[in-house]
């Protein structure tokens, strides 16, 4: 029989002393009598040698006021730290206004050589805080640059704003320019997924779409999509992926977010159309949104305004896009959808805080990290069959002769300030489906438009907001009126043309105006994101 003595507090323990020892571990004293301290969220640099000249306020303004200089560098901004030959260097992302950052550094010499071992463990402790558990250091990345992305500025943005940040963070980079449409599909189809952590697309949303589709063509597609994260360096005209996952469309800020990115799962949507199969990560649009995205070429001179203008013209014309729509409904209770989203976000915040305090990976990250195991062969079978099959029995069908807007999203933001799908979640196994009748009063339609940026569009009774797991849409061909002054002026203003063909956009790319069927493949894709598991839009304000 054994028994244990209950733990008694040791009267010789000195908690204050232990704390002091920990504090000493956090401090590195360097030359110029400066100290580098690991604070709660930031590296604190206290350097008495750095003296500013402040506004002369003393001695009749003749003497400069001397002051100690303290600087706080958030751990999130720390890109790398080294100790080489008694030289300590910390490289970090230094903000340059609201929309960007460059690489800055602090550099000191260790004067007390006996402190070398302490300095070595201090640098490692700094790196542990800069790259907490779950954030991989020195990521290996294949960078694809679309030389035509962002009206031809993508290459410049990559080399000026992003490459120096990846280099400072010691990422292992292999760069390739895409040479033609579809090139990124081929590259991703052939890539050795074991050689990279991520494929980073210096582009708009077109290249990530191609990369997901290329990975989906690999022999061991499921594993490929789990092993390699797809990320966007926002250098295009549409940068929704970066806005949603990293909360920015600034290439340099996104670069830091990628360096610090947490692997997370992303639902992909499998689409069948004719004999084609595509994978969509962002959205599918039929009607007004697709037409504004793809059918306003005559208005290119307007720049980004062309989309809003095209939208308004169609709204005022009460343009309709008749279709038959069938879907597998998960829920259409908007109140329950918003409550569920709020609950998910607060649980995510709580589990992140717990993870940070324990320094451990969350369950979802563990499952994504497991992509290194040999757990997949091909892609999952289609639960609902293809567009060529009979409709599944759990699909409900609606005839929509006056459909104005059909928009399905897998992410919240579709462009800056437009969270069309404010309650979308990255890996909930559901698509967010919006339908709006084309004949809603014009004033209501205008009010809807102004509500999009607040994430409150879904609150309009005229807006159907559903969570679905699959759908089929069969758009009907309609000939728009081609005669008459009104229709001519309409077309000149970028309105709907007389063509029978309409527009369907999948992730912003045009596909044939033919029926298609879609279904969610839960968590099939992998991305890197700032907060891991949630988007950078926190949902509509509570009512
Ligand atoms: N070298 C190339 N020449 C022509 N097209 C290319 C090239 N490289 C990539 N593309 C195509 O450009 C398309 C748009 O790319 P991306 O989304 O990166 O840019 P973007 O600036 O947002 O452009 P867009 O407004 O046209 O979507 C993609 O479909 C891609 O296949």
TrEMBL record:
GO terms for molecular function: lipid kinase activity; phosphotransferase activity, alcohol group as acceptor. GO terms for cellular component: cytoplasm; membrane. Pfam families: DAGK_cat, DUF7493. InterPro entries: ATP-NAD_kinase_N, Diacylglycerol_kinase_cat_dom, DUF7493, Lipid_Phosphate_FormReg, NAD/diacylglycerol_kinase_sf. Residues 136-275 form the DAGKc domain. Transmembrane segments: none annotated. Coiled coil: none annotated. It comes from the Eukaryota. One of its GO terms (biological process) is sphingosine biosynthetic process. This is DAGKc domain-containing protein. The lineage of its organism: Eukaryota, Fungi, Dikarya, Ascomycota, Pezizomycotina.
